[in-house]
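Re: Re: ligand-bound prediction request (bumping)

Still looking for help on this. To restate: I need the protein modeled with magnesium ion bound, output as structure tokens. Inputs repeated here so nobody has to scroll up.
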Amino acid sequence: MSAQEELFHAFLIKYAEIGIKGKNRYLFEDALIRQIRFALKGAEGDFFVRKEMGRIYVEAKSGFDYDEVVERLSRVFGISGICPMMQFECKDFEGIRARVVEYAGKVYPEGNFSFKVQTKRADKKFPMDSNEINAALGEALLEAYPTIRVNVHEPDVFFYVEVRERVNLYSKIIPGPGGMPVGTSGKAMLLLSGGIDSPVAGYMTAKRGVKVDAVYFHAPPYTSERAKQKVVDLAALVSRYGGPMELHVINFTDIQLYIYDQCPHEELTIIMRRYMMRIAEAIAEETGALALVTGESIGQVASQTLPSLACTGEVCHMPVIRPVIGFDKQEIVDIALKINTFETSIQPFEDCCTIFVAKHPVIKPNRKVIRRSEEKLAEKIDEMVKKAIETREVISISP
Ligand code: ATP
Ligand code: MG
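Reply:
Sorry for the wait, this slipped through. Here it is.
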């Protein structure tokens, strides 16, 4: 057991409180607790996650791995700070004093820093008020460690002491990921390809509290099982942040071949993308999702010029969220590296969009022209879309 596990048995979870007053606060806190429990599932140790007077605590009930817990908590959206905490039963000042001195010695053994004690006394039966506790603890610390000094304006270290049913003592605030707890903002359907952009788009959507399910368009035998497995792997990486998700795998081959046979080849990509949007929207509607999410960024490739986006976007009624719309590739890559999807995304498997791709795809599609081309599909396309949706494979994803 490392020193940290010996000292800290609990974590105080801080969350931004703006905009979560009244009834929303409950929803926010309950969703946050649910996501914390989910994030800790499978971690070494037993944990008790509880809410008490506007606070959320994670308490270890057995041995645990400090670094693992911090790492997992730092993926839970809605958390603004993670405070490893010493928690103890104590009803007299002597007991508090001894623990604070012990804590300071163990956590800051180098002993050269300025500090301030900040006490909150929630237990009004405690015989000293918070100012008295601050002063007495400050004095005790100075006495125990002659090389440290008080600075009430800009201290290096704040010792936070909260006298409640038990005493909470902490000084470190590890930044959380921010955002909103997943489950507080409805559900969206992500078009997840094997590329770099769409997993990042899924992550960014989940960060705002949206539960994300995904749809992948698979074109066997032109795209391999390994290409599909790569998307499953990416979904699992996104679900480390977004929680469990369903991945709908659509067999897109017949539709692609039909478009290839019937329509001008330079319009293939754009028409295919329009069918992806239509199918994704149908599944979204069926599963209660309220928006579609894509990894499109303006101008990145021919199918993502503004006229192309307008043309693919016009076929659906739901809002289409494009979280990386204004990002350069490098900015997207930076996030992909941070959330650990990059390595998987760059595995070189074929993508269904690249297979039938024309040498000179249209970059300024005229919507009227495209609509007319699609009329050539009238005979069979509705039936094919229906079949693709009905025969989809649904894979339950968790990290
Ligand atoms: P990504 O890196 O996300 O694959 P990309 O730069 O390769 O993006 P495109 O291939 O033009 O861009 O795809 C644009 C968006 O369309 C993707 O971000 C994704 O949301 C969706 N998409 C493309 N191909 C598929 C697919 N096979 N299955 C599901 N969604 C797809
Ligand atoms: Mg792609």
